[in-house]
Amino acid sequence: MTDRKKTALISVWNKKGLEKFASGLSMLGWRIYASGGTADALRKSGIEVTPTEEITGIDSLLGGRVKTLHPELHASILAAGNDRLLREKEGKPLFDLVAVDFYPFSMTTGMEPVDPELVEFIDIGGPTMIRAAAKNWRHVIAAAGADVFQEVLEAVSNGRDDEDFRRVMAVRTFDITSRYDLEIAVSLERGIVPALRYGENPHQYASVHFTWPLEGFGRAEILGGKALSYNNYLDATAAWDLASEMPGNTHSAVLMKHGNPCGAGTGQTPLEAFIHAFRADTISPYGGILAVNSNVDMELVAKLKGIFLEIVLAPSFDDDALERLQKRKKLRILRMPEGRDQGRQIRSIWGGMLIQEADSVSGLENVNVVSERMPSEEELQAMNILWIICRSVKSNAIVIGDSVGTLGVGAGQMSRIESLDLAIRRAEREGHSLDGAVLASDGLFPFRDAIDRAGEAGISAIVQPGGSIRDQEVIDSVNEHGMTMVFTGTRHFKH
Q1: pTM of the model
Q2: Which DSSP state fits 229?
Q3: Residues 6, 135, 139, 303: which is the catalytic one?
């Protein structure tokens, strides 16, 4: 078997840099295949090129819409292992590089989703070919986008087109094609998904995109009020996340504001759960969100009179309760589907994104008592509930409460003792005695000062991750105050 000549397939919309790229490959002895306008442009530049119709047998179909969607062409891209050896033996084409630049869908900005011209900017053949090349990255270099052509040419010229390089190009390709498809989806769904007035602030444009199959807020029914805003979705997500994590054997209520729970409570009825949540902070919930993990009845709705809320979320509503809520014209009412979000969490950063699994918590699974005094059953019950709530509070997080919910919440401070002071002040503002109260901390205590402060306030039990180099100093302080403390071994930072 003779040495096979390296072969590239090129199909680009943007011809900038095409001549330099193709001529560079040609000078290295590569054979170049190209389709349609790309082949014409290369010929005009004096570069030897073989049209793809020599493989496909067609110039184009449907007025140029179909040129590269052909099994033989894709077999030349996808062949691997014995299939690749067999095609080489039979003298059939094999591609070592596929270079594609898509139709510029970004040029459709301002077009209506139903504009017939919009779909003409949706590239089909290009993404199909480059994804095939990326799938077969052990044999094929996938060069997606004209901006990478020079880098690929240099790698090929210098012999750096090894397996690691091809894998990086594959990763790059799947990232680019996924964002290209998302851009199209977001454009086409305008008028189908709820419109947002703006983002966090009026000068910021924003939109919402629901993934398929629809779940969560994509399936939620808006039973009253106007469409949700950007901030509404953020707060509603935080509220429902906590409400759905609360103990399943009781009714639970969560009052959320700016991504932090003002209060959370449980009870034998929805009303009782709300009362136990509202008692922690009767001021901050104004303009906030109420999430209830069970049916909303008239007893609860009557209690909400005079309390301005942006949203009420629940899995179901009694007819009379819903009718009463719907009289509030500005109140969004959401009937939530079953289930909870267990998917990966994604946040954008400059030039990329952060991906992590959800921080699921089902209460205290492992109880490691590190104090001299053992916690009572009521203290353990309070620790369990407050540990769940603590996960939903921004770090540094301190939650003070009892066996039915919160008494004070301290969130988002730069030091843990400042969060503790905030939680204590809020509880005292509402007239609560903290004698016998329980404290949950999302992270370890680095010093005993916070323990001393908690002891002075009357707190009797603490649940925290542990793991400080001063753990023994913290434990000694707990014992001096006659408190009890449990280490979880797991922290729940939320940024």
Answers
A1: 0.88
A2: -
A3: 135
